[in-house]
């Protein structure tokens, strides 16, 4: 599900516009993620322009996958990125059984509604 592979990135640095274009998002979202996720630390030149390395772009790809594809909250994505012990295999989303999750959530909902009355 990952959009970017580090091996495919040939340049040493990429501008924020190029990074935003890779993910088909606005540059403001990239700047917002930079504030929200300590893992993303682009270099800045004398003018203050952000310069993203291929490693920065791979981190943004993980954030993109967690937030936009898997539906994590920003806090949840931050914890997932920081948690080295848990493998949040980002490539696994195709094999995820949504119907099983829906059944489990419906069961929890039913139990909560019963306990409420």
User: SS-based structural class?
Assistant: mainly alpha
User: Strands of the biggest beta sheet: in what spatial order?
Assistant: 1-3-2
How many DSSP H or I helices?
5
Give the C-alpha Rg: 18 Å
- Mean pLDDT reading: 84
CATH architecture: Orthogonal Bundle
CATH topology descriptor: Multidrug-efflux Transporter Regulator, Chain: A, Domain 2
The count of domains is: 1
**Helix share, percent:** 40-55%
Please count the beta strands (DSSP E, at least 2 residues each).
Answer: 3
Assigned CATH class: Mainly Alpha
Q: N-to-C terminal Cα separation, in Å?
A: 43 Å
What percentage of the residues does DSSP assign to strands (E)?
A: 5-15%
Contiguous uncertain segments of 5+ residues = 90-95
* Mass-distribution shape: elongated
Strand-and-helix sequence, N→C?
Answer: EHHEEHHH
Biggest sheet character = 3 strands, antiparallel
Features:
mainly alpha, 5 helices, 3 strands
Q: What does this protein structure show overall?
A:
With 117 residues, the chain is mainly alpha-helical. The protein has one domain: Multidrug-efflux Transporter Regulator, Chain: A, Domain 2 (Orthogonal Bundle), CATH 1.10.1660. It is 53% helix and 6% strand. The chain has helices spanning 16-23, 27-36, 54-69, 74-82, 98-116; strands at residues 14-15, 43-44, 50-52. It has a three-stranded antiparallel sheet with strand order 1-3-2. 16% of the residues are buried.
